[in-house]
Automatic annotation (TrEMBL), chains A, B:
Domain HTH lacI-type: 7-61
Highest taxon of the lineage: Bacteria
Disordered: annotated segments: 339-358
Alphabetical list of InterPro entries matching this protein: HTH_LacI (IPR000843), LacI/GalR-like_sensor (IPR046335), Lambda_DNA-bd_dom_sf (IPR010982), Peripla_BP_I (IPR028082)
Matches recorded under SMART domains: HTH_LACI (SM00354)
Polar residues bias locations: 341-358
Matches recorded under Gene3D superfamilies: 3.40.50.2300, lambda repressor-like DNA-binding domains
Alphabetically ordered keywords of this record: DNA-binding, Transcription, Transcription regulation
Name the UniProt record assigns to this protein: LacI family transcriptional regulator
Length: 358, 358
DNA sequence: TTGTAAGCGTTATCAG
DNA sequence: CTGATAACGCTTACAA
């Protein structure tokens, strides 16, 4: 045993009397080694509690059997579930997953740097800014496998993800079909524009005018941000009767705002969320939302990454795998109610309060 | 450049005309190398986009600068937030985090095996079964650093975590102090007994009789499981007016059950959760819950792990770091209301339905 | 201040 | 079927 207390091939070799490479071969089940020798060696390995040294293996094979997984945050249960699935899938294939979160481009760069140091064989990434991915393209150009977990077109990268644009279009269309004409939206504008783009597209297609005031970008990613965003939307007084929230977290935050301000959902305010998290399903008023199949997404992403990793030659042309999102209609969305609430005393008082804070 | 396309020390050496070890030393900022040489070498490294090979380094240093992080699942936002913090803390110290989830002891064993293969320097673990941790003790006995993320006494392991027993005692005491005498509980009994133990302890201390029927172990970890557990508790007909849920997810599931069955919270049913997740805070009826400071927990756990890793000699005696939980009282808990609901028509109908299903 | 040589644990090549 | 030997990229004596 070496001084670190770890058993090595050499230990097994001396114990069994075979050479180290015979041991190596035997442990990997090579038929070039006699069955007898394989048995003896396997037993010795078990006795000595042998665990292969992945570093040594990586060094010679130039493969670490490790991939990096980089997500923006684990606050949102949906991507978190995907992350869990990704790890499971990689694990089944004998890969370890180094993980990191990054909420700024700088952190993202630092994490990727860390991954490279650790010699990961590939990268699964949900980038902070979906619109600036030049650094990822550069990695790919150097033949480094990268799979982006966003269903975005024309990235020059391998991408697997839900068709956010289409799903958001569908969600908005659902509200329009119900008869809503003044729909507010809560979601990112610059970093991750797909959902709001889909929201806009639905207005265009259905000939509904859209004012920029109808869109608010919440500050941060949390229910509190959704709560504040809702307050801001209402303060803009365009008479909204429905909300498209780019995430259930925003939607649920907005729902609590409604409760605090005497606005009933869905009678006076319809809300459609995105991600279909369990918290929305079991909310006091269950939340209409866009379901995406995280398990399928994870499986597809991992499969693509493995293809890229197992490709010895130059990487093939990037592939886009767009998965469908499914709108699940629940209690929070309905036809616009008769009762208007934008001019109730409660709402008036509330707006006064907002103005006072500014 | 080696054929994998990665720059090595040797590449920098040939480019600059220095020897490889001079380069190695220079890159690590050794003063044994002239300032001039260091500058030249640093520039060359940057030009060639040099990234150190961690495998090679690990091999010679016998340190992978990687730790394993094993959690049961990332469904619950609270431990998930802790996991994120743990990664951040380790990252700041230059460590990579290999992560895995395990929901069965077998998966746990497999994950630990995987970690060992990858030569992790230590392990942060939230074990599946808090009562059978012999395998972790064995690791420690072999001088392998393990920090358990559970505030449990007498484990023979290093442990950092919230004092779940005390916090659960406090939460239950809060309900008792409000005047509740028939309190149901939703939580794990065997695997993770601390919270229910605290619940029991509160009954003992305050001289309140407790029937085993008052405790239900939900099947699985989800809001749905809490919902079903609540239904089961009510079906047992001991006249409960309050619920202690070992997790906000259970508590929120139970709250939705109450809504579906015309039981108002807190007038007819008080609910206290655990974990203080944002979903509880922004719930229609905000949830009284036990707050634990995930950031502090993560910091303390990482600090302890680093101590163990940096200790060349035999590992010091295990340490227990119990952090306090703080009860945050919100809308979901109140004095028992005048209106009884256990015998309302609604409840009767509901119970009939439950019986029919069996 | 810098270079040389050995070794970390594994796999691959090539003999025997 | 099995055993030397070299190599992977890096660090650490030890020499120069």
């Amino acid at each position: 045993m070496s001084r670190t207390g770890k058993t090595t091939l050499a230990d097994i070799a001396t114990k069994t009397g075979y050479g180290t490479n015979t041991v190596s071969l035997a442990l990997r089940g090579s038929t070039r080694i006699s069955q007898e020798a394989r048995d003896i060696i396997a037993k010795a390995a078990a006795d000595l509690d042998y665990v292969p040294n992945n570093s040594a293996k990586s060094l010679v094979l130039k493969k670490s059997h490790t991939v990096g997984m980089l997500v923006e945050y684990l606050t949102n249960p949906q991507p978190t579930a995907v992350a869990t699935e990704l790890q499971r899938e990689m694990s089944e294939r004998g890969y370890g997953v180094l993980f990191a979160t990054s909420s700024t481009p700088e952190q993202e760069t630092a994490a990727i740097e860390m991954f490279r140091r650790h010699g990961v064989d590939g990268l699964l990434i949900y980038p902070v800014d979906h619109t600036s991915i030049e650094h990822l393209r550069k990695l790919r150009a150097r033949n480094f496998p990268v799979v982006m977990l966003v269903g975005m077109r024309d990235t020059g990268l391998d991408a697997v993800g839900v068709d956010e644009f289409q799903a958001s279009y569908d969600a908005t269309t659902h509200l329009i079909a119900l008869g809503h004409t003044k729909i507010g939206a809560l979601g990112p504008l610059v970093d991750k524009p797909l959902k709001i783009d889909g929201f806009r597209h639905a207005h265009r297609v259905h000939g509904l005018p859209l004012d920029e005031r109808q869109i608010v970008e919440p500050v941060g990613f949390s229910m509190g941000a959704g709560y504040d965003g809702m307050r801001e939307l209402v303060a803009r007084e365009f008479g909204l009767t429905a909300l498209f929230a780019s995430s259930d977290m925003y939607g649920l935050g907005a729902m609590r705002w409604a409760k605090d301000n005497g606005v009933s959902v869905p009678e006076q305010l319809s809300i459609v969320g995105y991600d279909n998290i369990e918290f929305g399903e079991f909310s006091h008023t269950s939340l209409t939302s866009v379901r995406n199949d995280g398990a399928t997404l994870a499986k597809a992403a991992v499969e693509r990454l493995m293809q890229l990793i197992d490709c010895d030659a130059k990487l093939p042309a990037p592939t886009l795998n767009l998965l469908p999102g499914e709108l699940i209609i629940r209690e929070s969305s309905a036809r616009p109610g008769a009762r208007s609430w934008v001019n109730t005393d409660q709402a008036q008082a509330n707006r006064a309060q907002i103005s006072a804070k500014k």
